[in-house]
Amino acid sequence: MTSNGCGSGALRKYVPQLSFGHCCDMHDYCYDNCASGRVEKCTEPYCSPGQFERCNSVFYDCMHETVCERIPWYHPIDRVNCEAAAVFYTGVVMTSLGGDAFKDATKQRCGAYCRSGAPFCGMGEDGAGGSCASTTDNSNCGECGQECDTGRGFACRGSKCVCTADVFNDSSNCGACGNKCPFGTKCSRGSCVCAADTCGNLCVNKQRHPRNCGSCGTVCATGICWDGVCKRPEDLPTPSGSAPTCLPTDAVKNGGFNGIPLLGASVPPSPWSIGDSKFGGIDARRVGPLSFVSLHTSGTTSPTDGIAFVQLVQDITMCPGKAYELTGTISMGNKGNLRIAVGNKVIFNKFYDDAPFQNRALGPLPFTAPASDDTFVSVRLVFYLDNNLIPIRFGLAVPQSATNLVLDDVSIYQP
Fold first, then answer.
1. Residue 298 Cα to chain centre, angstroms
2. Residues 173, 165 contacting (CB under 8 angstroms)
3. Are 105 and 28 in contact (CB under 8 A)?
4. What is the pLDDT of residues 122-150, one digit of tens each?
5. pLDDT tens readout for residues 253-306
6. C-alpha closest to that of 379 among 348, 411, 344
7. SS3 sequence of the chain
8. Cα distance from N-terminal residue to C-terminal residue, the chain
9. CB pairs under 8 A, 24+ apart, for 395-400?
10. Model-level pTM greater than 0.70?
11. Where in the chain is the domain with CATH 2.60.120?
12. What are phi and psi of 25, to 5 degrees?
């Protein structure tokens, strides 16, 4: 601990044994630790927490007992000068200037010494208010203003933000804090699994899914799956004598792309059609009992070519304001971006850059049909594929690769 100079310097040549630096430091610490409930920076009796008058009193005691009284008796003049200096210094710190210093120390510094090193937070510019933060303060965890993200399952424990969520069963924090399970899944033993049924790698509800009704692969010709059984519209319960009711049918017609010639075709089967395109096209394929469409784009080689894209579209009818889900199966060849829109709302937008032609589930993708005063609402369903990879690299346009998307088993239904 070094002297702050209050007893050395100019007087040293007159009183060589005079060294009040230690006492001055203790006096500073006493000011710093004036408020009750705060931990002292040191445990010596001359820097104990106290009020203004007490700090000044122990300051004199320190100078008198640890300096002046230790001057040998055979140096009486030095001892008298030391006592005089101690009285003088004590008188100075008891003036209004000393009082101002006391207030400043209280305002700026004494709050830094809370128990266990906890921060002192919330003090106003005038020095009023504030308190020592607890070890579980989510807004001041370890330091003032350090907030724990409680929305992601974190909380302050021992002045540190730690994950306190049930990572084994919490679907919002599955396996780790902030890891949210996708729609239609739940957390089980730290992993996201299907909340209802599974058909291949697709999460479905067999009680409502029109292409997996009651069992995987059972397609309802009417597009209506009710309690796991395919129903005709007239078999559904409807209010007696009411106006025509919008039925929960599959909004997508021919989601399995049936009716493709054995040798395939360059256009999708009805009611699907090709929308806008640039350097892109659609092929319809049939392999044994399976049929599907392939959206593809050509590679571009010139910056002026822009992005190659193609759209697969179908006009669909839904019940206004009702909740729907879209499902399907896809596989991507090369890298590319798939965007799906229902009307003017994009419900899916993802760039694929992993292994080519890896079969995967699409959805369930939840959305709400547009509101309308009519019984039905008609919108356009659009699958948009493009090869927009990294058009600019190091200031230069990069040629785009061709990409390919295989699509099958598309369905839009009320869950």
1. 38
2. yes
3. yes
4. 766 555 567 778 888 999 888 888 899 88
5. 999 999 888 888 888 999 999 999 888 888 888 887 788 888 888 765 555 556
6. 344
7. CCCCCCCCCCCCCCCCCCCCHHHHHHHHHHHHCCCCCCCCCCCCHHHCCCCHHHHHHHHHHHHHHHCHHHCCCCCHHHHHHHHHHHHHHHHHHCCHHHHHHHHHHHHHCHHHCCHHHCCEECCCCCCCCCEECCCCCCCCCCCCCCCCCHHHCEEEECCEEEECCCCCCCCCCCCCCCCCCCCCEEEECCEEEECCEEECCEEECCCCCCCCCCCCCCCCCCCCEECCEECCHHHCCCCCCCCCCCCCCCCCCCCCCCCCCCCCECCCCCCCEEEEEECEEEEEEEECCEEEEEEEECCECCHHHCCCEEEEEEEEEECCCCEEEEEEEEEEECCEEEEEEECCEEEEEEEECCCCCCCEEEEEEEEECCCCCCCCEEEEEEEEEECCCCCEECCEECCECCEEEEEEEEEEECC
8. 73
9. 397/302, 397/303, 399/299, 399/300, 399/301, 399/302, 400/299, 400/300, 400/305, 400/307, 400/308
10. no
11. 282-413
12. -65, -45
Instruction: Map tokens 């992005």 to a residue.
Output: 307
Q: Is residue 342 over pLDDT 80?
A: yes
Average pLDDT value for the chain: 79
Q: How many CB atoms lie within 10 A of CB 329?
A: 19
Structure tokens at 247: 């039925």
Which residues make Cβ contacts (< 8 Å) with residue 205, sequence separation at least 6? 196, 197, 415
Fold (CATH) for 282-413 = Jelly Rolls (2.60.120)
CA dist 336 and 402 (Å) reads 8
Q: Which amino acid is at 53?
A: E
Could you tell me the CA-to-CA distances from 213 to 9, 93, 280, 327 in Å, in that order? Answer: 95, 89, 35, 14
The distance of Cα 223 from the centroid of its chain, to the nearest Å, equals 39
Count of C-beta atoms within a 10 Å radius of residue 54: 13
β-strands 225-226, 229-230 pairing: antiparallel
Contact 260, 266 (CB under 8 A): no
Query: What is the crossing angle of helices 76-93 and 52-66, to 10°?
Result: 170
Sequence-distant (≥ 6) Cβ neighbours of residue 239 within 8 angstroms: 245
What is the CB neighbour count within 10 angstroms for residue 314?
21
